[in-house]
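1st attempt posting a full record on here, be nice pls
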Amino acid sequence: MASDCKSRDDDSLAGKNLVGGALILKLINTSSKPSKIRKRGIGKTMQVANSKATRSALASDLKQKYGKNAARVRIGDRVKLIKGEYSGIEGKVQKVYPSEGRVTVEGITREKIAGGTTPVKISATNLVITDLNLEDKWRRRIIEGST
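the predicted structure (as tokens):
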């Protein structure tokens, strides 16, 4: 097989190595430069980028139950804050802002200067999902891993 690949004139195996007869792919798109990593996200669709931005870790019991480490936060999920000013508070997700990667949680508000209150937007990375809202059949299928 190795001699076969060396004789090819086309570049179909460019960026690949043959080691001991096995085909091993090179990691072409790996970089430690932040600018290159940001650049990779530019060509993605907004749905994909926003979906990644609103993911949060699952609680340890949910990790064992579903075999996943994280899931996208949705309205109705129960979450616990693990970082920041409001850490330790548990509540239900009221609204999700995918383009910002933030959510508002029931019971977490801030006083306005002119009076009244406004919900606080919290980064999805500062949350742990303690209970999933599985009313949606599509989401249940994805989380549980059934086809």
